[in-house]
Design brief:
four-stranded mixed sheet, Ribosomal Protein S5, domain 2, binds magnesium ion, single chain, five-stranded parallel sheet, alpha/beta, Rossmann fold, 22 helices, 527 residues, binds adenosine-5'-triphosphate, 18 strands
């Protein structure tokens, strides 16, 4: 019997089973922290197809089209084969267009356009445009930190992100503008000079205070409250009639705080970078942030949120000032969401597959009018509200938030003499000097506890560090009774007294320090 092959002359074509494989190191973002992602590319014969695996979200799936178009636009061949791209670790959900460039480089390595040996210990991040242009991505500063910590020698990043990347020393930064430039850079990686120069002088000069405390006339008590707040990291509530200068004072708080250290600038810039808040005008954060969310802000806007968690206002105010103007107009639910963040100085946002943590160590300055018409207690204008209306208005400030505020101060409108006076007030620089000295004292005192400020002392250590005279104890006992202080308010009162003592370079907390701290508890809020 003839076999089929003998009968019919069929030419059997060997399927093209040749595989080519490449792996490129890239990075993913979780909160402000980055983690390594390995992009594995496998190209084999078979029907042309392009498959992405490893829990990609919609934006990454779309990267297939961007990668295909960018490779073709750069005058290179896009393999008409079966391409499988795996984003490892496969159990973490990947989001955003960050991996475009690494996927393209992986495909070009398989295609032998790039020699894989040039990619050893080089990480790659960037979004591709259809023309092959590289767009900036969020989180580059965190990517560079992660690459350095994981032993990378260098990282290829979008050119527009180069300033934030250059905040990190000890890793080679290669900023690029297009896919073609990325290819050239990788081919010449051993010869090419990395980007290091970052001259912060210009930015620092620009940041130098545009506003100053000397512009605020009078208001000595409010200024003193802000000086204490800046020195010890305490929270402040200012109550006063319209136009008394509350907003003006709050805007100037950061001008009396010490400049950020390099590490702090990195921390703050990381948050802005992760949240996509950097742009061509603000490429890194140099000065202390000042954030003023509107009272219509949602809880997500304030504390952070979104399906891919984004930092909220409290995190954007990290190491700076969060100013809640018109405090009584904020929704109670929104304010209550702040309670935990104020204590822990970080916020964890949990989503189905992962949770992201953002730091939020800020000084809270809140302001409101004393009553609905705004003139309760005003020297010149008569208040038209009933006692009931005043009570109801102030009761809108949630108790737990009030409990977390260390200094309450009444800001009265200036009288005619103060208003027309030409006397200049003390400027920010001179107040800042005292603040810095008081902070130095605190830093030395708490060096074993690894904290820096009086406001950070836990209740376990508070008695040891806030020693009182016998007389002082008596004053405080009386205050607890008459002001109905909670345990938390009592601790806060002690810490404020400690800061006042530090501002006058006193080792022990004297009676006058306690009495001054007690001045910043308004009888309006007596229980
Ligand atoms: N102490 C002051 N010294 C100099 N100017 C002042 C002072 N207080 C108020 N002003 C002037 O009044 C304007 C309004 O002040 P500001 O906005 O700070 O008031 P406010 O207390 O926040 O009022 P509102 O309750 O309406 O928000 C300021 O821009 C400033 O020009
Ligand atoms: Mg105001």
């Amino acid at each position: 019997m003839k076999t089929l092959n003998e009968d019919i002359n069929i030419e059997i074509v060997e399927p093209n089973n040749k595989h080519s494989f490449a792996s490129v190191l890239s990075c993913g973002l979780n909160g402000v922290n980055a983690y390594p992602v390995e992009i594995e590319v496998d190209i084999s014969g078979g029907l042309p197809n392009f498959i992405l695996v490893g829990l990609p979200d919609a934006a990454i799936n779309e990267s297939k089209e961007r990668v295909r178009a960018a490779i073709k636009s750069s005058g290179l061949e896009f393999p008409s084969k079966k391409i499988v791209v795996n984003l490892a670790p496969a159990d973490t959900k990947k989001a955003g267009p960050t991996y475009d460039l690494a996927i393209a480089i992986g495909i070009l390595t398989c295609n032998e356009v790039i020699d894989s040996s040039n990619l050893n210990d080089i990480w790659v991040v960037g979004e591709l445009g259809l023309s092959g242009k590289i767009r900036q991505v969020n989180g580059v500063l965190s990517f560079v930190i992660s690459a350095k910590n994981n032993g990378a020698k260098g990282i290829i990043i979008p050119k527009e992100n180069k300033e934030e990347a250059a905040l990190i020393r000890g890793i080679n930064i290669y900023p690029i503008d297009s896919l073609s430039e990325a290819i050239e850079t990788i081919k010449n990686i051993k010869r090419i000079k990395s980007f290091t120069s970052l001259n912060l002088e210009k930015e620092i000069k620009e940041e130098i205070n545009q506003v100053d405390f000397s512009e605020v006339k009078g208001q000595l008590l409010a200024k003193r409250a802000l000086e204490i707040a800046a020195a010890g990291g305490h929270h402040v509530l200012m109550i006063g009639s319209p136009g008394s200068g509350k907003s003006m004072l709050a805007q100037r708080l950061s001008t009396i705080m010490p400049p950020l250290f390099h590490e702090e600038r990195i921390e703050v810039t990381q948050i802005y970078s992760a949240g996509g808040k950097l742009n061509s005008n603000r490429k890194i954060i140099i000065g202390r942030p000042f954030r003023t969310p509107h009272h219509s802000a949602s809880a997500a806007g304030l504390i952070g949120g979104g399906s891919i968690p984004q930092p909220g206002e409290i995190s954007l105010a990290h190491k700076g000032v969060l100013f809640l103007d018109e405090l009584t107009e904020f929704q109670k639910r929104v304010l209550d969401s702040l309670r935990q963040a104020i204590e822990t100085k970080e916020i964890t946002l949990s989503r189905s597959r992962k949770s992201s943590t953002f730091p939020c160590d800020f000084i809270l300055i809140a302001a409101c009018n004393p009553c609905p018409c705004g003139y309760f207690g005003d020297n010149l204008k008569k208040c038209t509200c009933s006692t009931f209306e005043v009570r109801k208005y102030l009761n809108k400030i949630s108790g737990p938030i009030l409990d977390r505020i260390d200094l309450q101060v009444e800001v009265k409108r200036l009288n005619e003499n103060e208003l027309i006076s030409n006397q200049t007030s003390e400027n920010s620089l001179s107040i800042k000097r005292r603040v810095i000295e008081a902070r130095e004292i605190q830093k030395k005192r708490y060096k074993d506890l690894k904290i820096n400020l009086n406001s950070e002392v836990g209740s376990r250590n508070i008695r040891e560090h806030c020693k009182l005279s016998t007389n002082g104890e008596g004053i405080l006992k009386e205050a607890i009774k008459s002001l109905a202080l909670s345990a938390r308010s009592y601790d806060r009162l002690l810490k404020v007294s400690r800061t006042i003592a530090d501002l006058s370079n006193s080792d022990i907390i004297k009676d006058e320090h306690i009495l001054e701290a007690l001045q910043f508890r308004l009888s309006t809020f007596k229980a």
